[in-house]
Write the structure tokens for this entry.
Amino acid sequence: MSAPTSLFARRSLLAVGAVAAAVLAGCGNDIPPNSVAKAHDSPIEKTSFDRWFGTVARAQQQSLGAPAATTVPDPPNFDKCVAAKRRPQPGGRGLPPVEQTRQECRNEFESLKGRVMQFLINAEWIEQEGDERDIELTEEEVRRNFDDQKRKAFPNDQLYRQFLAQSGQSEEDILYRVRLDMLVNAVQKNVVEGKREVSDQEVRDYYNRNRARFGQPERRELRVVLADDETEARKVKKALDDGRPIERVVQRYSIDESSKREGGKLTVTRGQQDRALEEAAFKARPGEIVGPVKTDFGAYVFRLERALPAMQRNLPQATEEIKQIVRSQKEQRALEEFVRDFERRHKEETLCAPGYVVRECKNGPKGPPPGQPQPGQGGPPGQQPPGPGPGGQPGGGPQGTGPEGGPPTPSDPPGQGGSDAPPGPEGGE
């Protein structure tokens, strides 16, 4: 389960102002005043929505090279957004019509409005799921996790403070997101508990269904030199017949950089290389120098190092690998079932105010089947989304802190998990 990378995609986030009164006026009694949605009995307040909207808008605009003090889309007329986009650029081309720019601002507004609603609703669902499963996280645990990741991501406190200023987040926001990441990991662990046991019968059944997977066909190990043409290949053959070391001949004559880096080593399996080379390789005797062999890529000269017979691993030899495969399949099935059930249960208890309705709302539009994210939504569970950190380095913030990150969502496709390690200052995960 992971934060949806697309949550902070190239859109701006909704700084709802003038629209608020009209939007909330028709909410009815089911959604508390000054809230944009209700998940179970927990309101999602408009102040929270507005805060994350501004954060995401700034983050996505900075990722496109805009300065920190950029203007977010401002409904209903988007005058500030239009003015910002129509500022003359040095050496820039002509500007599009005003209404075209206004529509661009409106599209950004609507897109990021929906993404932030998904963000907040999924975050509330995660909290609810943790409560239902009696998962407890103390403030000390969250703080310790945050501090560990912060140390890895930021060489000094000044860079961290710069990150906060640029992203528009408070440390409280980041701690909240780190907590959500931890909850997701705990929920995922809870879901797959008891799914790690693999019986001897399951191992035998898998082996019998997949025998070919545990076998290797007949192979030939060669030392090859690929020359441009047959004339050059004859020079290679003579050098080898005269006793020159094949490693030196490879370095001087071979035009195949891949095998050249390996000293000319090449393993040939039927059906995987050029047919002429395969036929010559399988006819050769160990130690024999063969060539030139004309192919579409040039002319080969080779020495047969070893003839390897076909082999089949038996059940005891394959048991540990099979256990890992079956265990992974069982865990993935458990996660897939959980995701479908998770969305159904929590969506049934989620209502959204007019103007803030998304697929996750009970009163929202129909979307992909439960457990399948919308196009551009979500990523593999356990995968931390990249986010530019200090100096523009991707992955520069603690887990859950990157300005393109977001709290993880169990609606992401299961069973594709990445590393749980936090992204470091070099941008790796």
Observations:
- The CA atoms of residues 227 and 253 lie 6 Å apart.
- The first helix runs from residue 20 to 25.
